[in-house]
Amino acid sequence: MCLILGVPTKGEGPKIGADEIVISKRYQIGGYSLRAKMIALEKKDKSLPDGSKIEKGTVLYERVNQKFYVETDPPEFGPFEFQPKGRDDKSYLFEWEQEEEGYIIYYNEVHPCIKPLLIDEEKLRDYFTEQVSFLALQIKLEELIASEEGKDKKDEELLKISKAKKAADVYPLFLKKHSEFFWNLKK
Amino acid sequence: MVIKIRKKDKSKKIIRYKGTKKILTPRDIREADRFDNALSREIKEIEKILLKNKMLGSEAKKLSMLNVWYLIGTRINKFLEKNKVSLGEEKLFWDHLYGRSSIINETVPLGKISRTRNDFRIASILAHQPLNKLQKIGIWSLWREIVTYKAFRDERVLKWALEKIEQSLPRTRDEVRPFLKSVSARLKRIDTTVLNDRELVAKLDEIVK
Predict the structure, then answer these.
(1) How much is the pTM?
(2) What ipTM did this prediction achieve?
(3) What does residue B63 show for φ and ψ, rounded to 5 degrees?
């Protein structure tokens, strides 16, 4: 396997540096950062755009920072964080809380739908990926109701639901039924 | 790994678990709790030593900030040897050491503290040096200032600057600050690793000429 480095399309003079790095077995599992900078090794009668003279040691270019991951996934981004908060309650599968950076989705780790997945993080991730679309829809709906009506005209269907009485109850009720159904089915 | 953090939302205390992972498992939470309990025990131990050695005056004022922070830095370094913090969670770890002990920090900073100005992290860096060497140069606030400048990451620059500071008494932070700033400004665009000792000192000597 090799990492292809970006090659600048503009510039004067010969090309400097390698085009690719071979990821050999010497690399351990984890995240790596490849950083590079160009440093003047002698004094020059030239100046940088900011007016500073080029002397030995002057950093000419340093905006090279290429991250790569060997046999591991890059850190996850997104507005949702999943945390376990279990209780013996058939009607509870997920609940959520808004915080500064997004939402914390609490999941019921004792729920028969989730409990068997805890030994395999990949499966747990797949399950949450399926569920997150429903959760996002409900969150969006709640936000829509809380905001000025008609603010988000991109989603006509959601807007229609939000105008209905107790529209925010639609999904929790659906989730409750869904949860109870799977509790009985899987237990 | 995941870090257990305590937040205040109005008057309500809330607990959060944060890390680079977006899906936390019960095992992550257990590990974060174990780490947090060990850290709490360590902080209690630091508090006991500070009180036993009478390092704190009335109203918990630190009699010698340098000695107090040196002790904190030493204990934290030992703690981190046994309880590893991964690179991704390092910032969270340093940020949330504030607010854990009213003896160490009387008040919790309201705004965010940058990584370079975090007292615990600075204490951890300084604790790798002998205490008498630190005491010879100056007080905690002066050391705090020195550590925040990138230029002093080169040991040779630090050594040169300390010699100059030692030669000029008295040494309060405000008095030394212009000197530290001029060293930093002189080396702002320079990567000193390609300079030999003679070349480096020649550049530094331009500052005091």
Answers:
(1) 0.77
(2) 0.73
(3) -70, -45
